[in-house]
Design brief:
Elements: E1 2-3, E2 8-11, E3 14-16, H1 25-28, H2 33-41, E4 49-52, E5 56-59, H3 64-73, E6 83-85, H4 99-114, E7 117-118, H5 126-133, E8 140-143, E9 156-159, H6 162-169, E10 174-177, E11 181-187, H7 196-207, E12 217-221, H8 230-237, E13 247-250, H9 254-262, E14 278-280, E15 282-287, E16 294-296, E17 304-306, H10 307-312, H11 314-329, E18 351-354, H12 356-359, H13 362-372, E19 383-386, H14 391-399, H15 402-408, E20 412-413, H16 419-422, E21 433-437, E22 457-461, H17 463-471, H18 497-500, E23 504-505, E24 534-543, E25 548-549, H19 550-553, H20 566-570, H21 581-596, H22 602-613, E26 623-631, E27 634-636, H23 642-649, E28 652-657, H24 663-671, E29 675-678, E30 690-693, H25 696-701, E31 707-712, E32 718-723, H26 730-738, H27 741-747
Helix pairs in contact: 3-6, 7-8, 13-15, 13-17
Length: about 750
């Protein structure tokens, strides 16, 4: 794999660094596939600052209630574009009592009232339904799940926080600066046993840490694309999220055409390819024939190694990963990977999972069935579970015998559910090692609770190598070790009647008088204050990890049952990373409540006295007091807005960071009225410090490049430093000034 240090041009089906005769980078940028799609959806006069409107949207049952509640509070009367609501995350309805099914009932009533599309529980995982039914060449789809990626079908799809979807629901636009576009130039053909997850993990491993594609579009082109099936492309594409790119898109061809014809939507196809002389801001050249069977070791998809290398150097590599994981876990619990090495040198795995939008596709599961057919997973501790991505896929796998082959080998065949990907399904026992064809292996994504002494380890692998491991009784095995050739793939027949009989499609047919059906856990968002002229925040958590994931900011798993109740969910904020956060944030919130009543608690009096002694004028009545966290690089991973909104409902007024891991988390902070500060001098801060920001509202609204701040130490010492807010649209600045997106829509 080669990552170019400079931009490249596309000419005669190849990429080159020298410009073709008469070509320029400026003109060439207009020749990419991404440019054409973005231009067609841009409502602004300029392509420099985009104002996008999407063709459709999608959410699952962790996010849609909050989005609809936000849009209702902002004046929405009907869905202005098709909005698909799937139920593939909170579909374990025994968890949390009745509240998960209450959310599903709410979504169905919203689909009736506002004209939406409702996909019942266990019918399909969110991204598979949208691939099958909503994607189209040249379209754009916005989803409230970070893995909203349908680029392999010519659809530029974006995963964002709920606030961005609420904007579309009230007729506003998605605003951003035109992104860079990086070519992924594919050549060659995968070797037998090498699956889409192997290619994806190789790409993530090569691009995540160096930020090569961060907030950019990955555009897949080149002769190697033709050697990949639609399912294979989808499997690679959905994992582009883990590179931290903004979106992805692929050139389309006869394979794409056949996919849409197969799914009864031939009109969704059109040819997409770069123009001659198209210019890319970077290029990744990848010969598919060089990709090996891969494994991403705990606790990140970018910790990717060839399985061959891990088996050959098991002690060294597993020790290094184990030590790295234990540093990340902060001493709360110890991960033990070396114990998985058997006396004979083989590596034993306790569990194998193939599931969700990345793993549970038709071709992946057929490959699993082929590898385990007539074999046994063993009657020891190892267990294998397979989750199909949609009921049409499930039906076809029943018809062609794949389900029977997997079950006969000792595997368990389950429902369409995303649980194993976010910590709510097939949680391993303490100390176990699970290999999964899912999208993430972050800490807690497998359901363990390090703060309570529970830890298991997840490694990501392709379904083929998971099946090879299962057929070998749980001993780590690359599919390439047992595959000399690719087996013949059974034909796929999509049966649309499965959806026609169960999915409610109310698009274009809103019923305004239809009553929304609420449950006791569905609550409105609490009111939030506007930004005051000055601001005082207390650092209630100081996180020094290189990266802080959204799962650490607000844990996934069983906590997701409470995502329709902002205050109750907020009780879990940072619970597995910093259990002191919630009480500390609440204490600051209580101080501000007293201030608003006219009383000044002693703790605040001491801070004001120190500031006044240092020459700072403090208007107590016009200086909100809130909490803040410091993290080096917060927001990697999920798009869930709750990573920000939970801090906000506990009185959070800002985040301070050296950089933000993703655009979507920073957008979540903005939409919930939390100032996304960046500083170059984080060492001046410590947990327990107050930070005073004089004139912050004016500085925000006038787009000041730098804002003065002063840290007030517990002993009264003052340490001045500077913060920045970075590039924002005028609307984003006003949202922060108004206190949150809901407040903004009340007056704008």
């Amino acid at each position: 794999m080669k990552l170019h240090e400079t931009g490249v041009y596309y000419q005669n089906g190849k990429v080159q660094t020298a410009p073709p005769v008469g070509a320029s980078a400026e003109a060439g940028r207009c020749g990419t596939i991404a440019y054409g799609i973005l231009k067609a959806h841009n409502t602004a006069d300029s392509m420099r600052e985009l104002r996008l409107k999407y063709d459709s949207m999608t959410s699952h049952d962790i996010t849609y209630v909050g989005i609809i509640q936000t849009a209702r509070a902002s004046g929405m009367e009907r869905f202005p574009l098709p909005y698909v609501m799937t139920n593939c995350h909170n579909s374990l309805c025994a968890v949390g009592g009745t509240i998960n099914e209450d959310d599903h009932r709410f979504a169905l009533s919203a689909a009736h009232k506002y004209g939406g599309i409702y996909v019942p529980p266990n019918m399909a995982v969110i991204h598979s339904y949208n691939r099958e039914m909503m994607s189209g060449c040249g379209r754009m789809i916005l989803g409230s799940d970070s893995h909203t990626r349908y680029g392999a079908l010519g659809t530029l799809a974006v995963g964002e926080g709920g606030g961005e979807l609420a904007k579309q629901l009230v007729g506003r636009t998605y605003d951003m600066t035109y992104p860079g576009v990086v070519a992924v130039y594919l050549t060659g053909k995968p070797n037998p046993g090498v699956g889409p997850h192997d290619v994806a993990l190789a790409l993530v491993g090569a691009t995540y840490a160096n930020g090569y594609v961060k907030n950019k579009v990955m555009e897949f082109i080149g002769p190697g694309v033709a050697n990949l099936s639609a399912d294979y492309r989808n499997g690679i594409d959905v994992m582009t999220t883990e590179t931290t790119c903004w979106s992805s898109v692929w050139q389309t061809d006869e394979v794409t055409r056949q996919y849409f014809e197969q799914h009864g939507r031939p009109e969704a196809y059109k040819e997409l390819k770069p123009a001659e002389g198209a210019y890319y801001d970077g290029c990744i050249e990848l010969d598919l024939s060089t990709v090996e069977c891969m494994i991403a070791l705990p606790m990140h998809p970018s910790y990717a190694y060839p399985i061959r290398e891990v088996k050959a150097n098991a002690k060294d590599i597993l020790h290094e990963i184990e030590q790295q994981a234990n540093r990340q876990l902060g001493g709360k619990v110890q991960m033990d990977l070396l114990s998985k090495i058997c006396p004979d040198g083989r590596i034993y795995v306790d569990q194998g999972i193939v599931a969700g939008c990345s793993g549970g596709t038709f071709e992946n599961i057929c490959a699993v069935a082929d590898l385990v057919k007539g074999r046994s997973c063993g009657n020891g501790a190892f267990k294998l579970s397979v989750y199909p991505d949609s009921m049409p896929t499930y039906l076809e796998l029943v018809k062609n015998g794949a389900v029977a082959d997997i079950v006969s080998a000792g595997g368990i065949f389950r429902e369409c559910f995303c649980g194993p990907c976010f910590g709510a399904g097939d949680t391993p026992a303490n100390g176990e090692l699970s290999i999964r064809h899912t999208t993430r292996n972050f800490p807690n994504r497998e359901g363990s609770k390090p703060g309570e002494g529970q830890i298991s380890a997840v490694a990501l692998m392709d379904a083929r190598s998971i099946a090879a491991t299962a057929a070998n009784g749980g001993y780590l095995t690359a599919a390439s070790e047992v595959c000399d050739s690719e087996p013949a793939l059974p034909a796929y027949h999509f049966d649309a009647s499965v959806y026609e009989k169960r999915v409610y499609n109310g698009w274009g047919k809103p019923e305004p008088d239809y009553a929304l059906r609420f449950g006791p856990n569905i609550k409105d968002w609490p009111a939030q204050p506007a930004l005051s002229e000055d601001l005082l925040v207390k650092v209630v958590s100081y996180i020094t990890d290189p990266v802080t994931t959204t799962d650490e900011l607000i844990p996934s798993g069983e906590t997701s049952s409470f995502r329709s109740n902002p205050l109750r969910l907020a009780e879990f904020t940072l619970s597995r990373k910093d259990p002191d956060y919630v009480p500390a944030a609440k204490a600051v919130q209580a101080l501000d409540a007293e201030r608003r009543k006219g009383a000044v608690p002693a703790e605040l009096q001491a801070v004001y006295k120190a500031l006044q002694k240092g020459g700072y004028a403090v208007n107590i009545e016009n200086t909100n007091v809130g909490s803040t966290i410091y993290a080096n690089k917060p927001g990697d991973g999920s798009a869930r807005e709750q990573a920000a909104s939970c801090q906000r409902v506990l009185g959070g007024a800002a985040n301070i960071a050296t950089e933000y891991a993703t655009k979507r988390y920073r957008s979540n902070c903005i939409n919930w009225g939390m100032l996304p500060f960046v500083t170059d001098t984080p060492d001046v801060l410590a947990k327990g410090d107050y930070v005073f920001l004089p004139g912050v509202r004016k500085a925000l609204l006038t787009a000041a490049e730098q804002l003065p701040a002063v840290a007030v130490k517990p002993d009264g010492r003052l340490v001045p430093f500077a913060v920045r807010l970075g590039a924002m649209t005028d609307a984003e600045r006003q949202i922060l000034a108004d206190g949150c997106l809901i407040n903004y829509y009340k007056t704008h």
